[in-house]
Amino acid sequence: MHWEVVWRNLDYFLWGAYPDGPLGGLAVSILLAVLGIFGAFWLGLAAGLMRLSRRLWIKAPAVVYIEVIRGIPILMLIFWFYFLAPILFNETLPEFTSALTAFIIFTGAYVGEIVRAGVQALPRGQMEAARGQGLSHVQAMSYVILPQALRNMIPSFVNQFVSLTKDTSLAYIIGVNELTRTATQVNNRTLNAPTEIFITIAVMYFIVCYVLTSTSRRLEKHLSRYQARDR
Amino acid sequence: MAVIEVRNLNKWYGDFHVLQNIDETVEKGEVLVICGPSGSGKSTFIRCINRLEEFQKGSVHFCGKDIHARDVDVNSLRAEIGIVFQQFNLYPHLTVLKNVILAPTKVRKTPKGEAEDLALMLLERVGIQNQAHKYPAELSGGQQQRVAIARALAMRPQVMLFDEPTSALDPEMINEVLNVMKDLAREGMTMLCVTHEMGFAREVADRVIFMDGGQKIEEAPPHEFFSNPKSERTQLFLKEIL
User: Fold this and answer.
1) Is the ipTM of this complex over 0.90?
2) Domains parsed from chain A with CATH numbers
3) Of A68, A72, B85, B183, which residue is least crowded by CB atoms under 10 Å?
């Protein structure tokens, strides 16, 4: 075994050539995931709430967005933003931006469906009580519906975000210097330790995803404290 | 001026004619009890008054104003009309106190301190001042419904609608809720109550309405309604529930 290859390149796997060169490796993967999760959450929240609207001109764009994106493989979207954006906007997007945009748009569609289902799963009486007191639709959503629905959505969100974290490895295909790409680079240079290298990055992905799921479990427990009794 | 004036109210769910030519005038301080078999349209009727249900024909005036007039804001209308539901519908993620102050602070923009003072006073009035910082799930059904009444009163409404407020309660908790409602009635609150609690109707109602099949079948002061019902359907209904 050649574990010294992994050991020598560990800092390269973790943060690339930084601070002498550009950031890379696991740091870029995490950055993609975190920014992607953040963007997808807000995009998905908007799409999900729009889809619940009774007004067609609000609902229709959300339905089209969600249904179209769910029928397209994520790799297609990554290529699409990378190769088609220059043609459409007459400007090349940096690889990182292309990949991030694709991740946000892709995951946002799934988050939108989670939000819709989460809101619909609440008893109808909650919305009736809030509107019946004179709260506007937006106020009822903000103070009554979403605080309850978002908590119920946490397990589905986490599933989606764990997927996204793993999917960031696909960004290597357009040359984003994230973890999977640094691994292939080191492997091509050394040639004698593919097993060690790919076991190492698999463990890194696992640790990140595991931290994500266990944090969410704790968050869920904390947020559901008020309904521990009765019901 | 009448607080609520309903004229020729008609509502359909598809082909089903749920409300048929309902007329009703409620004066300030009046207590109306609406009873009738399930599916008779009584809940739908009171929900039309605050526009939780829309109707296709007829009109409802609240304090002289058509509730569907262009310049009537549905949220300000609802702020003036308290409603209490069969299933309480308290906000489970908020404490009792926060349940009560939510609408006053958000809709009426009452300062938080002022809203809390009023909330605590109302909670005392319904007998649960000691539970203000608990969550709804920690209270009994009767206590939850009394919180729901306090929550509705916190908006200082001009009318209170009760949609079968005791139907989801265990028998031993019904009276604690009815007592709060009786106090309200005696203090002069205008109330429309959908309920089968005939003791309550006898004691505080000014008029009792019997509905069946979407129609108002009979309407009379309680003593007349119970001792001398005119329609056969009312007689049959009373025989079954008394």
Assistant:
1) yes
2) 3-230 (1.10.3720.10)
3) A68
